[in-house]
Amino acid sequence: MRRRTRNQRLYRLGFMALVANFAFDAIPLEAEVEVPNPFIARLGKLPDWSDLDDYQYTITREEFTYLLNHCYARNQEEEYRDLIRIEQDRALILKQSNHPASGWYDLRFRTDSLISATPKRYWRAPTELDGLQPNSTRPLKGVCIAIDPGHIGGRWVIWDDRHFTIGKDTIEVREGEMTLAVARILQRDLSLLGATVALTRNGNHPVTEDRVETLQEEARAYLRNRNKVPSSGAIAKTAKAMFAISSEIRARSDLLNEEFQPDLALCLHFNASPMNMRRPSFQGPNHLDLLINGCYSRGEIEEDDTRFEMLLRILQRIYYEEVRLSDAISRTMKFETRLPSFSYDGTNGMSVNNNDILWARNLLANRVFMCPVVFFELYCMNHHEVHARVQAGEYRGLREFNGTYRKNIYQEYADGITAGLVNYFRHRR
Predict the structure, then answer these.
(1) Residues 283 and 336 in one domain
(2) Do 280 and 176 share a structural domain?
(3) Is the domain of 16 the same as that of 161?
(4) DSSP string, 220-269
(5) 191-210 pLDDT per residue, tens
(6) What is the extent of the structural domain holding 75?
(7) Fewer Cβ in 10 A, N or C end of the chain?
(8) What is the pLDDT of residues 63-113, one digit of tens each?
(9) What percent of the chain is helix, strand and coil (3-state, nearest 5)?
């Protein structure tokens, strides 16, 4: 009898548990559902979707679809399917890509006109500036320009691996210091031409207050959210990238977007061909390319903050100004540098027009700097001629390299940009 009673009790408890589980499954309680951590970029911030409210009814369906497919989504609808739904009178944007229950942001298209309205933005197109007097010696008067010298110099060069030495008794190549040299020439020359110029950094020191050692927990959380094992090596590598790239560029974007609020930004970089960094050596190619923002992959659009930033660029119609500006500068850059163009394969960079120097690519700086951005990649630093010109430093006049007399490499870089800006603003304002 005792055994039977015990078995009956166990059966009853099991049945009650089964009923309870069935009831829970049949009527889920929203409070009990676990919401996954949002899928965001490294050190990204949760987007406030209400910030798009200012763009309601400002863009037509046709223009929104054109910009998204032509420049921003690498393979058009394939990249944003189930993330952005384009309907007749609105676009529905998923707020959290890994949690559809979070809902959709409802962006209404402009339907009472075939022309999109002027969007909210802090930057000004050339046509919005005061006109120039004929033959003005200050063609950039009233233009606000931000210059971002890529990377960091001094003792901080070790954190982003943009430094190397080739040969004995040579000067170490340090990209962060080279871009700052170009930026200072540009600041001087563009100011003389009437522009208001601001640098995102003025020395060889990080703008961000973060450091690799303070980003360990963020690195661990980022790896876990990406379903990667947070090993000590992976954490160290991720924290290093977070400091040198993510945190540093985001700190510069805060300055640019909140304080400078320029009409355009120039992101200065030198290029380099792939090589073994333990044994640096000369490589063959040397080329020039200018980048605007675009060519987002599916994985990038899935990041909630990246998707939000892409939409802000579309809604402000930044693309048109970037293309016109880059086209003008590319011509004078090609004339000054005499460099051939570089070609991308359509994976991480794609063509947007018939200019073989201009490519769309999604980089952090040209995404989070919320104005027209021209991103420069030129002079492969491990090319033998470029290396020789870096060794020569900032000399005056001309010197011969491979049978051609050249300005110093920093002045040549800056002159190509300056001439392009002057030509562009003379003709556009």
Answers:
(1) yes
(2) yes
(3) no
(4) HHHHHHTT----HHHHHHHHHHIIIIIIHHHHHHHIIIIII--SEEEEE-
(5) 999 999 999 999 999 999 99
(6) 49-108
(7) N
(8) 999 999 999 999 999 999 999 999 999 999 999 999 999 999 999 999 999
(9) 45, 15, 40
